[in-house]
Design a protein that fits this description.
Blueprint lengths: L2 E6 L1 H4 L8 E4 L3 H12 L3 E7 H6 L1 H7 L6 E5 L8 H14 L6
Parallel strand pairs: 1-2, 1-3, 3-4
Length: 103
C-alpha cells in the first residue's frame, strides 16, 4: 500500500499527522535529500514538501519530476513562501489541459 509524507519545518507540518500522513520535521538540505531518497524507495507515492524546504533541495526534486512515483508536491509553509508551489500547479495544469485555466 502506498503512503504519503510531508517534509518541512515543525510549525508547518505538525498538523498533517492528524490526517494520517507521515510527518518529517526537517530543514537541513543534506538530511532532506537523503529523506526523499529513502521515502521514494519505501512505497511513498506522494511527498508533500514546504516551499522553503523544497528550495533547499531543488536538484533532488528535479530528479523525480519525470518519475511516476513519488509525486513531490510543494505546499506553503507558515513563513517564507516562494510561490513555487502555485507556479508548479499552473505549469502542471497547462501541460495537462493545454492552457492555464487557473488564471
Amino acid at each position: 500500500m502506498y503512503k504519503a509524507a510531508v517534509i518541512g519545518d515543525s510549525a508547518s507540518v505538525s498538523g498533517f499527522a492528524a490526517l494520517g500522513l507521515s510527518v518529517f520535521r526537517e530543514t537541513e538540505p543534506e538530511k532532506i535529500t537523503k529523506l526523499i531518497s529513502r521515502l521514494a524507495a519505501n512505497d511513498f507515492a506522494v511527498i508533500y514538501i514546504t516551499e522553503p524546504a523544497a528550495a533547499l533541495v531543488s536538484n533532488t526534486i528535479a530528479k523525480y519530476r519525470s518519475s511516476k512515483l513519488p509525486s513531490i508536491v510543494l505546499i506553503p509553509a507558515i513563513e517564507g513562501n516562494t510561490g513555487d508551489g502555485m507556479r508548479a500547479l499552473h505549469e502542471a495544469v497547462e501541460k495537462a489541459v493545454g492552457s492555464d485555466i487557473l488564471n
